[in-house]
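Review the following:
>
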Amino acid sequence: MLVACTTLYGEKKNIPSEKLFFRPAAYAVIIDGGKILLMKARMTGKYWFPGGSVEVGEKLEDALRREVREEAGIEIKVEKFLTFREVFFYHDQRDEAYQNFSFFYICKAKTAGLIADDKVDDDAVEKPRWVEIKSIKKDELQPGVKEILDLL
């Protein structure tokens, strides 16, 4: 059976189901004073949320706090669950496909200073930034970001 996956560039690619990796992930939606914390995807340069993979045995909220600390260098308070998305995506650079269960949470920053760009501990995202929500253009976003922002 072939599964339609979305590439990092928003294109469709059919992948045999037996080649999919299962990947649960948690992402933080952090807004402060009209700005949102976003990361740049290394391959596309488009915005995405801080967060990522949940390790085996790790609780979702613990994974979320760890990922945000690794990617943005801040501590967060997880306030509430926002939404869930099932996403089939293809990672072009790795030549890997995933069935991703994405859990999005509304969070608040507990600390202020973002990590320096060269200290980001992640191979998929970089450059944590507080971005004015009103200034974001749709073509600056990874697929799926606008739909999450529309929920707010």
The chain has one domain: 2-150. DSSP finds two helices and nine strands in the chain. Residues 2-150 form a domain with the Nucleoside Triphosphate Pyrophosphohydrolase fold (CATH 3.90.79.10).
